[in-house]
Q: What sequence folds into this?
């Protein structure tokens, strides 16, 4: 009886121990699986962190490169802005000089206009004087032409006699027409010598 009871109790203890061992094994396996899962997750997270760190380093390098490029572009833009300011100042000076030249040219034009107006008036006055002188020359020319014709007519008369008779001794019918035209009569002249 005692042996049988001891054997049954030993079996129970052995069964309990086996069951406990099984439970421990199951728990160990579960813990191992969880640990491996956690370890895998940890490795994955480390890998992702390393990748992210590498990406961050690449981004930092790219940012540094872009920063240097932006700084160089800003310096270039600053230099161009300075050059534009210098050119703008030079253009402003040229514009001022051009305005001064334009004002001086306008003043010169006004003075030239006054001079031209005075010269026009003087030219018109001279033209009027020349016109009057031309009219006078025409009149004098006509007079000279008349005198020339008279001279030519007087040259066409016959040569004079050596001794001219007195008008009182001549017959009024025999007086030459030329003498009559010149107004030579007995009243104003006693003796006349015909001249060419």
A:
């Amino acid at each position: 009886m005692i042996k049988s009871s001891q054997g049954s109790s030993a079996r129970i203890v052995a069964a309990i121990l086996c069951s406990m061992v099984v439970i421990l094994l199951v728990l160990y396996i579960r813990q191992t699986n969880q640990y491996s899962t956690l370890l895998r997750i940890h490795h994955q997270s480390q890998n992702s962190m390393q990748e992210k760190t590498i990406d961050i380093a690449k981004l930092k390098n790219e940012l540094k490169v872009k920063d240097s490029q932006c700084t160089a572009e800003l310096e270039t833009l600053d230099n161009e802005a300075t050059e534009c300011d210098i050119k703008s100042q030079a253009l402003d000076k040229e514009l001022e000089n051009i305005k001064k030249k334009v004002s001086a040219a306008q003043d010169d034009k006004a003075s030239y206009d006054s001079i031209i107006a005075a010269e026009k008036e003087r030219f018109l006055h001279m033209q009027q004087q020349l016109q009057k002188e031309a009219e006078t020359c025409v009149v004098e020319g006509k007079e000279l032409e008349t005198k020339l014709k008279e001279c030519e007519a007087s040259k066409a008369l016959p040569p004079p006699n050596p001794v001219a008779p007195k008008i009182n001794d001549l017959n009024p019918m025999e007086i030459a027409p030329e003498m009559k035209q010149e107004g030579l009569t007995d009243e104003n002249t006693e003796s006349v010598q015909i001249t060419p």
Remarks:
- Confidence is low (pLDDT under 50) at residues 166-172, 178-196.
- The two ends are 218 Å apart (CA to CA).
